[in-house]
Amino acid sequence: MRRSKPIDALLPGIRQAVLAATLMNPDRAWYLTDLARHLRLRPSSLQRDLAALAAAGILRRSRDGNRVYFQADPDCAILAELTGIMAKSAGLVDVFGDWLAPLASQIDFAFVQGSHAGSGAPAPVGMHLMVVGNVTRERVAPVLRQVEQSLGREINLTVYSRHQFERDLQSRDPSLVRALGQERIFVVGSERQLGLLTSEPGLARLEGSNSAPGWRNW
Fold first, then answer.
1. Model pTM?
2. Which domains are assigned to the chain?
3. pLDDT digit string (tens) for 58-83?
């Protein structure tokens, strides 16, 4: 029996979609028609949720002539927490997971890093996807373009083969050490799987480096 996602018990689908679009793009003010087109919904289906979110102080409502715009309200006291929740559900994990699903059997793990990979307030910095497995950059890149279109954000991509990842881990490659020392959200695989890989016999332990939450044997 398929279990529903935790976010489904908290928010209806349309409200999830609205929050994912607005909180994942906090600098953008959305005109109703543009937001509806982005979400592939009718404008009328969004009006009640937008009004409720604006009344709660989660979204900021502004007017420019006859047009009304909606944007994440930076003064919202729980904006950082909501952003973290959406990043780990409808905002990032679901979007990446859906698009990467056809390649999942070729991917050991994949995770996202950047302004929404933690629970802190959004910041205007880039987003990065790291993929490790039996898959090439040429296979992942077209999928990533679809994700970028869905999220409305540019995403940097790094693809490692399993052999290359293990080799760079053994040699303590600076870029890999730096990447693995940052917070991340897994879209394929888990922190446990990554931890098991790094603790395999023959792989160097990167002792003394900065650890992300939940990271061990570094």
1. 0.60
2. 6-79 (1.10.10.10), 92-198 (3.30.300)
3. 999 999 988 999 999 999 999 988 88
